[in-house]
Design goal:
The protein is an alpha+beta fold and 566 residues long. Helix content is 31%, strand content 19%. It has helices at 100-118, 151-157, 164-183, 243-259, 266-269, 279-282, 287-296, 308-315, 321-334, 349-373, 380-410, 426-430, 497-506, and strands at residues 42-43, 47-55, 59-66, 71-78, 84-85, 94-95, 129-135, 138-144, 148-150, 196-199, 204-206, 415-417, 442-449, 459-463, 469-471, 475-481, 486-488, 510-516, 526-529, 537-539, 543-549, 561-563. The strands form 7 sheets. Strands 1-2-3-4-8-7 form a 6-stranded antiparallel sheet, with helices on one face. A 4-stranded mixed sheet has the order 19-21-18-22. A 3-stranded antiparallel sheet has the order 9-10-11. Helix 3 packs antiparallel against helix 4. The two termini are 52 Å apart.
């Protein structure tokens, strides 16, 4: 391309002077996004700004063009709209009065985070940043633009869900990249089907890196959280997310790819932790993959799969489901017929059942004849005795029949007796490799129920029941206790907001924050609850307000509370 005047502002292809792009259909009369840089703005006298593609609380993402390398690029501009503004058709930004300190802190975080991502150039499964600069009183990053579609759209276009074999090829390289990032202390905190993109060559890459201030609810920037992919701690005030937070988002995205549906929002899953998978899809997934997702999607961070390396081990614990199903079918098809014993075939079990029923019928007939012949004698005791004998004989025959069936089943090496899991701690049963029986069966959560007698986290019931014969390697579905429906508010006075929020969340409540002046409690420390007292009994999941001290009241100000966003 000799000039840049004919660049399409939507796809950066050559329009040949036409008002409508023949490549993407974009019209040159289409207006730019509000607050965004004008079309064809030059940055660093090198990058041409195109159409704004998306924005969030951190900034705006544009398609652009690198006039040195002659390639389309992705431009990311730090532009938190709650802290700054831009005049119409202008380029410089102006920080809103009173937001200068917060803006500078977030700008510094944007630059530092972008440099950390840029240092991870060896990771091919993440979007690469190759330039960072400051201009227009803000900062920008430059990445190579690649034509792609989101994982969300890819799954929808692929029939609504992917097989494990297909998903594994997409997700495992990203998992490896995330493991390396976490080792370097870099978090994403926004992994979702919208930040995972499928490239034209079929590979999947992770993009849309943003500072942590937009991946949490308790900051000065509007949050950018995808319901179903954001972990519970991203909604909790002053909680510092860690590697398990990204594990949750990754597992939720994998769950979506395999099932076509998102897990419920984390706040709702506190009351109902079930992961609903259609039966037809469940049967197609390897049990170890279902278990790995269940562990990685635990609502409580301390019960969740802690690292990507642990998740990799759990996802790689067995062959793919296709091989498992094919092998099972092959075993059944090639199983030899029972051999004849001395030229005589064994009598099938159903024949014994029929013979037993015939024998019982004959006995009842004899009793009927005896009863008829003795009508009028009033010998009810004899009748009762004879009937009892018949019932005992029939019961004995039935027991023998069942015993012979059980004996035949016990000879099958593919059958095991279901263990008794009632009363056991569910988390201990799902920890892979901690039990010698872990290869014999999988333990899957069906639902959670409140119970005043069974401790929280322990198993209330199971299917199949204990002692029942079940195929080796299949799942035992359990109902787990959620503890009492009414909970006690824990003591929080004197704690930091983070400590108090975690204590309230662990007790089963949803915390919000309220501030008020206090001459007796240090600024930033918790005074107590608003409108309720510690030790009070409240329903599980109730919202409670934590009162945080603002320090002594200034002259003329009263010690009244002021609510802030949770």
């Amino acid at each position: 391309m000799t000039g840049f005047d004919n660049l399409c502002m939507n796809c950066m292809s050559d329009t040949n002077g036409k008002t409508e792009c023949s490549n993407c259909g974009f019209s040159s009369s289409e207006p730019q996004m509000r607050h965004a840089l004008p079309y064809r703005t030059r940055l660093q006298n090198r990058y041409i700004v195109g159409r704004a593609k998306k924005s969030n609380g951190e900034g705006i993402t544009y398609i652009g063009y690198d006039t040195v390398l002659n390639i389309p690029i992705e431009l990311r501009e730090f532009f938190p709209q709650t802290l700054c503004e831009r005049p119409a058709n202008g380029t410089d930004i102006r920080v809103i009065g009173g937001s200068e300190i917060i803006f500078d802190e977030c700008l510094a975080a944007f630059l530092n985070y972008s440099r950390e991502i840029a240092h991870m150039r060896e990771l091919s499964a993440i979007v690469q940043i190759y330039d960072i600069f400051e201009e227009n009183h803000t900062a920008y990053t430059v990445s190579e633009w690649s034509e792609s579609i989101t994982l969300r759209y890819f799954v929808e276009r692929s029939g609504g869900n992917l097989s494990w074999n297909a998903a594994r090829q997409l997700f495992m390289p990203v998992l490896s990249a995330l493991s390396s990032m976490q080792a370097a202390g870099i978090r994403h905190l926004g992994i979702s089907p919208d930040t995972l993109n499928i490239m034209q060559d079929g590979r999947m890459k992770l993009g849309s890196f943003c500072i942590s201030a937009v991946r949490r609810m308790d900051t000065d920037l509007p949050p950018d959280l995808v319901p179903g992919c954001a972990a519970i701690e991203q909604y909790v005030m002053d909680y510092v997310p860690n590697e398990s937070t990204d594990v949750y988002g990754f597992a939720a995205s994998l769950f979506f790819a395999l099932t076509g549906t998102m897990p419920q929002e984390a706040l709702k899953r506190r009351n109902d932790m079930r992961l609903l998978i259609p039966t037809s899809i469940m049967r197609s997934l390897p049990p170890h993959v279902v278990t790995a997702m269940a562990n990685a999607l635990q609502v409580s961070p301390d019960k969740r799969t802690p690292t990507f390396e642990r998740l990799r081990a759990e996802l790689s614990a067995a062959p793919t489901v296709t091989a498992t199903i094919e092998d099972t079918q092959r075993i059944h098809r090639s199983a030899p017929e029972p051999e004849e014993d001395d030229g005589k075939k064994g009598v099938p079990n159903f024949v014994w059942v029929i013979l037993t029923c015939v024998a019982a019928l004959i006995v009842f007939t004899i009793v009927g004849i005896i009863w008829i012949s003795n009508t009028g004698r009033g010998d009810t005791e004899t009748l009762a005795s004879e009937t009892s004998q018949v019932e005992s004989a029939t019961a004995g025959s039935l027991e023998m029949t069942l015993d012979s069936v059980d004996s035949a089943d016990s000879a099958d090496p593919n059958l095991i007796e279901a263990p008794n899991l009632v009363g056991q701690v569910f988390q201990e049963q799902t920890n892979s490799g901690e039990s010698s029986s872990s290869q014999d069966y999988q333990v899957l959560l069906s639902s959670k129920q409140f119970s005043d007698t069974i401790p929280e986290g322990s198993i209330i019931s199971q299917s199949p029941a204990a002692g029942t014969k079940m195929a080796r390697g299949t799942a035992i579905v359990v109902v787990v206790s959620e503890g009492a429906a009414v909970r006690t508010l824990p003591p929080i006075a004197g704690k930091t907001l983070a400590e108090a929020s975690e204590a309230v969340t662990s007790a089963g409540f949803t915390p919000t924050k309220t501030e008020e002046y206090s001459s007796g409690v240090e600024k930033g420390m918790v005074i107590g609850y608003k409108d309720v007292q510690e030790g009070s009994q409240m329903a599980y999941g109730s919202q409670v307000s934590i009162v945080v001290s603002k320090g002594p009241a200034p002259d003329g100000a009263s010690e009244t509370a002021s609510d802030s966003a949770p």
